[in-house]
C-alpha cells in the first residue's frame, strides 16, 4: 500500500513524501525508529479509517467469527489483550482483515479501547459488535461477551441460510420457465413461420399473435436488452436510496403470505439482537438504538428509531411497540410479560426462537404450495405455445382429410 506522509525531523524540518508499506502501523513504526516524527499519515487512496481496501476484498463472516473465538480462548487462558492481538494478526491471510487488525493492534497498544479501535472501521464491523465489546470492557467479561456474540451471529446466519435455501428451488424453476419460453419464442416460432409461409394460407389467430410477438422481440432485441439493463441499474440505484428502500420494505410487509414471514423475520432479528446486547450489560435505550440499525427491514428500523425515543422518554417498550402496530401481537405480549417479571432478555430470546421455528414451518408450507403451482403454470404456458404453433398443422390435416 502507498501512504502519503508529512514528517518532521528532530531539527524541526518538515517534509512530505509517499511511502510503501504493508500497513499504516508498520510504516509508522518504521519511521519512528528512524527518528522521524509523523505529523500526518494517510493512504494515497483513502479507504476506511486511513486504510486502503483491496480490490474486491472483504472480511468473510467465517474468518471474523474464527478470530473472535480464538481471541476469547486466549483471553480465557489469561493472555493479555495486546499480546493476543499480536498473535492472531500474524496468521490472517486476508489482506483486508490483516490491515484492520494491524490498525486495531496499533491503537490498542497505544491505549485505545478495543471497542473504539474496531469502531474506526464501520465498513467492516457492525455496531452490534462494537457495542458488545464496550459492554464486555465495562463489565470485565470480554471473553464471555465475545462468545455470546459468536453464538448470536451463528444463530442469525443459520436462519438466513434456511430462508435462502428454501427460496432457491422456486427461483431456479421460475428462471428455467422464462428460459424455455424465450427459446420457443425467439428460435422455434420463426422456424414454424417460415414453414407455414409455403402454404399461402391464413394462420389461426393464436398463431398469428405468437408470430407477431416473436418478430417484435427479434426485431427489437437490442432495445429490449438495453431497457432491461437500464431497469436493473435503475432498480439497484433506487435500492441504495434510503427512502426508496424503506418504501420497498414497507411494501413487502404488506404482501399476503410473504409479508407475514418478512415481519416475523424482522421481529426475530430485533429480539435476538436486543437479548444479546442486554445480556452484555448494555442499557435498554442504547441497546434499542444499536438493534434498530441491525434490522434488515428499513421500515421496521425507522419505526424502532421512534420507539427508542419513546422509551427514552419513559414509556414502556411493550406500549411503544403496540402503539406502532408493526409487530405481531404475540411478541408485544411477551415483551410486556418480560418487563413485568424482570426477565426481558429471556423473553426476547424466546420470541426469537418462536418466530424462527414458525418461519421455517411457514416456508415449508409455502414451498409445498408454490412448487406445484409453478409447475402447472409453466406447463400451461408451454402447452399453449406448442398448441398455437401446431394448430395450423392440425387444420391442414383436417382439410386434406
Automatic annotation (TrEMBL):
Subcellular location: Cell inner membrane
Membrane topology: Multi-pass membrane protein
Domain Type II secretion system protein GspF, chain residue ranges per copy: 69-190, 271-392
Top-level taxon in the UniProt lineage: Bacteria
Cellular component terms per the entry's GO annotation: plasma membrane
Chain ranges passing through the membrane: 167-189, 209-239, 366-391
Protein's GO biological process: protein secretion by the type II secretion system
Keywords, comma-separated and alphabetical: Cell inner membrane, Cell membrane, Membrane, Transmembrane, Transmembrane helix
Annotated signal peptide: none
Pfam entry (one): T2SSF
PANTHER family the UniProt entry points to: GENERAL SECRETION PATHWAY PROTEIN, PROTEIN TRANSPORT PROTEIN HOFC HOMOLOG
Family: Belongs to the GSP F family.
Protein name: General secretion pathway protein F
Amino acid at each position: 500500500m502507498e501512504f502519503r506522509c508529512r514528517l518532521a525531523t528532530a531539527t524541526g524540518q518538515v517534509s512530505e513524501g509517499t511511502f510503501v508499506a504493508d500497513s499504516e502501523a508498520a510504516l509508522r513504526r518504521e519511521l519512528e525508529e528512524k527518528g522521524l516524527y509523523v505529523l500526518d499519515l494517510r493512504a494515497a487512496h483513502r479507504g476506511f479509517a486511513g486504510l486502503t481496501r483491496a480490490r474486491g476484498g472483504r472480511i468473510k463472516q467465517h474468518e471474523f467469527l474464527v478470530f473472535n473465538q480464538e481471541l476469547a480462548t486466549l483471553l480465557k487462558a489469561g493472555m493479555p489483550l495486546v499480546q493476543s492481538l499480536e498473535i492472531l494478526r500474524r496468521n490472517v491471510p486476508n489482506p483486508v482483515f490483516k490491515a484492520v487488525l494491524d490498525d486495531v493492534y496499533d491503537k490498542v497498544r497505544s491505549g485505545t479501547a478495543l471497542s473504539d479501535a474496531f469502531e474506526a472501521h464501520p465498513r467492516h464491523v457492525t455496531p452490534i459488535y462494537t457495542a458488545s465489546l464496550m459492554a464486555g470492557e465495562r463489565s470485565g467479561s470480554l471473553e464471555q461477551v465475545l462468545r455470546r456474540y459468536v453464538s448470536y451471529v451463528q444463530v442469525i446466519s443459520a436462519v438466513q441460510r434456511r430462508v435462502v435455501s428454501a427460496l432457491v428451488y422456486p427461483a431456479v424453476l421460475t428462471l428455467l420457465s422464462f428460459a424455455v419460453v424465450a427459446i420457443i419464442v425467439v428460435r422455434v416460432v420463426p422456424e414454424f413461420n417460415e414453414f407455414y409461409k409455403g402454404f399461402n394460407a391464413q394462420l389461426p389467430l393464436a398463431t398469428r399473435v405468437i408470430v407477431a410477438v416473436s418478430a417484435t422481440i427479434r426485431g427489437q432485441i437490442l432495445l429490449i436488452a438495453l431497457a432491461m439493463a437500464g431497469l436493473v441499474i435503475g432498480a439497484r440505484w433506487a435500492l441504495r436510496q434510503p427512502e426508496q428502500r424503506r418504501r420497498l420494505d414497507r411494501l413487502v410487509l404488506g404482501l399476503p403470505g410473504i409479508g407475514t414471514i418478512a415481519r416475523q423475520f424482522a421481529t426475530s432479528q430485533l429480539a435476538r439482537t436486543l437479548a444479546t446486547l442486554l445480556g452484555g450489560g448494555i442499557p435498554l435505550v442504547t441497546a434499542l438504538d444499536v438493534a434498530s440499525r441491525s434490522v434488515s427491514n428499513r421500515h421496521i428500523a425507522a419505526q424502532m428509531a421512534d420507539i427508542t425515543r419513546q422509551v427514552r422518554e419513559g414509556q414502556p417498550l411493550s406500549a411503544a411497540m403496540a402503539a406502532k402496530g408493526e409487530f405481531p401481537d404475540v411478541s408485544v405480549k411477551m415483551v410486556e410479560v418480560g418487563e413485568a417479571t424482570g426477565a426481558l432478555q429471556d423473553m426476547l430470546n424466546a420470541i426469537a426462537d418462536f418466530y424462527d421455528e414458525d418461519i421455517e414451518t411457514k416456508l415449508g408450507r409455502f414451498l409445498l404450495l408454490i412448487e406445484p403451482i409453478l409447475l402447472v403454470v409453466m406447463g400451461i404456458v408451454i402447452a399453449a405455445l406448442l398448441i398455437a404453433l401446431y394448430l395450423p398443422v392440425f387444420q391442414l390435416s383436417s382439410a386434406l382429410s
